[in-house]
Amino acid sequence: MVTFTEEHTAFRKSVRAFVEREIDPYVDAWERDGRMPTHELFGKLGALGWLGLEYDEAYGGQGADHRFAVVLAEEIGRCDAAGVGMAIAVQTDMATPSLHRFGSEDLKARYLAPAIRGEMVAAIAVTEPDAGSDVAGLRTRATRDGDDWVIDGAKLYITNGVQADWLCLLARTSDEGGARGMSQIVVPTDTPGLRVSRKLDKLGNRCSDTAELAFDGVRVPVANTIGTIGRGFQQQMAQFQNERMVACYGRVGACERALDRTRDYLKQRRAFGGTLMDNQYLAYQLAELYARVDLCRHYNYACAEAYERGEDTSRFATIAKLAIGRLCEDVARTCLQYHGGIGYMEETWTARFLRDMRITSIGGGADEVMLRVIATMHGM
Ligand SMILES: Cc1cc2nc3c(=O)[nH]c(=O)nc-3n(C[C@H](O)[C@H](O)[C@H](O)COP(=O)(O)OP(=O)(O)OC[C@H]3O[C@@H](n4cnc5c(N)ncnc54)[C@H](O)[C@@H]3O)c2cc1C
C-alpha cells in the first residue's frame, strides 16, 4: 500500500479546491468554444509549482516525490471536463519528461523552465496521418544542413497544438528505417514553415485543442535535439510510459467521482414506490464498478511505487492503460444509463463524460496495441 503523508493529503485538498474554484465554473464555456485559455490556466498552475512537481529545482521544479504527481492527476481527473486534465498532462507528463531526462542545460533553461512556470505551452508531436499505432512508420523528416535540421512532414491529433509555444517532435533523422534513426527535437511553433493546417473537431475533450500541423522547410538548430541523435524512438517509448501512467491516475479520479454522482442520483430519484437505489440490481452494478475502480487505483499505486524505486514500469503502465480504458467505458455507459433520459441530455454531466472517456482506449496507444505488448511479454 503506497504511503500518502499528511503533506500529500493537504496537497490533495488544495488541488480539489483549485479545480472547484478555477476550473469547474468555466469548463462549460471552454467546451462550447472548443478551446480553453491554456496560457492563463497554466500561468496559475505554474505559479503554484504544479507543472513541475517532480522536476529538479534547478529548472523551477519542486523536486517532490512521484506520489504528489499521482495526487495531482487523480484530483484534476475529477474535474468537469476531461479535456482540461489532458492539456495539463501533456505539459507535465507527455511533452516534457524526455527534455527533463535527456535535454541539454541550454534547452532546459529555454524550454523546460518556462513550461514549468506555465509561461510556455508544450505539445507532443508523434502521430502522423499515416502512422499512429505504428510509431516506427512515421515519415516526418529532419534533414541535416550544417548546424540545422530542416523539417518536412505533417503531424496529426496534436493536443495543445493550436496554442503550443513549442513541440517535442519525433522525426526521422536518418535513412535507417523502422525504429532506428529517429530523434526528438524541440521545435518552437513560431518557426517559419510550421503552421496549424487544421484545428480538429472532436467527439469529446472538446475544450482541449487538437491540431494538425504542417512542416515545410522548418529550420531549427541541431542543438535543439533532445538527448542522443538517433535514439528518439527509444526516448519516446520511455516518455510514453509517463503518459500512460498519468492518464491512468487521472481516470481513477474521474471514474470514482462519476460513480459517486450516480449513486447520489439513484438515492434521490423515485420510481416504483421507492428510490432507484432500492433496486438491488443497480446497487450491485455500481458496487462492481466501485470494486474495479479500487483494483485499478491500487494497481496504479503499485506502478507508482515501482516508478519511485526507479524500476521499469512498462508492464504496469500497459496493463493499467488497457484495464482502465475498459473501465472508463463501462463506468460512462452505466452512469448515463442509470440517469435515464436526463442522462442523455447535454445539461447533465453524463453526456460529456461518455464522450470524454472514449479516448482512453485510443490515445497514447489503443487497447489492441496494449494487448500486443502484453502478448509479447508473455511470449506470444
Ligand atoms: C483526442 C486525441 C488526442 C491525441 N493527442 C495526441 C498528441 O498530443 N500527440 C500525438 O502524437 N498523438 C496524439 N493522438 C494520437 C493517438 O495517440 C493515436 O490516435 C493513437 O495512437 C492511434 O493511432 P491512429 O489514430 O493512427 O490509429 P491506427 O494506428 O490507424 O489504428 C486504428 C485502430 O486499429 C487497431 N489497431 C492498431 N494497431 C493494431 C494492432 N497491432 N493489432 C490490432 N489492432 C490494431 C486499434 O483498434 C486502433 O484504434 C491523439 C489522438 C486523439 C484522438
UniProtKB/TrEMBL annotation:
Keyword Flavoprotein: yes
PROSITE patterns: ACYL_COA_DH_1 (PS00072), ACYL_COA_DH_2 (PS00073)
Acyl-CoA oxidase/dehydrogenase middle domain boundaries: 123-218
Matching Pfam families: Acyl-CoA_dh_1 (PF00441), Acyl-CoA_dh_M (PF02770), Acyl-CoA_dh_N (PF02771)
Protein name as catalogued: Acyl-CoA dehydrogenase family protein
Keywords, sorted A to Z: FAD, Flavoprotein, Oxidoreductase
InterPro entries: Acyl-CoA_dehydrogenase, Acyl-CoA_DH_CS, Acyl-CoA_Oxase/DH_mid-dom, Acyl-CoA_Oxase/DH_mid-dom_sf, AcylCo_DH-like_C, AcylCo_DH/oxidase_C, AcylCoA_DH/ox_N, AcylCoA_DH/ox_N_sf
Family as reported in the entry's similarity comment: Belongs to the acyl-CoA dehydrogenase family.
Co-factor(s): FAD
Organism superkingdom: Bacteria
Claim: Oxidoreductase is one of the keywords in the record: yes
Domain Acyl-CoA dehydrogenase/oxidase N-terminal: 5-119
Acyl-CoA dehydrogenase/oxidase C-terminal domain location: 230-375
PANTHER family, alphabetized: ACYL-COA DEHYDROGENASE 6, MEDIUM-CHAIN SPECIFIC ACYL-COA DEHYDROGENASE, MITOCHONDRIAL-RELATED
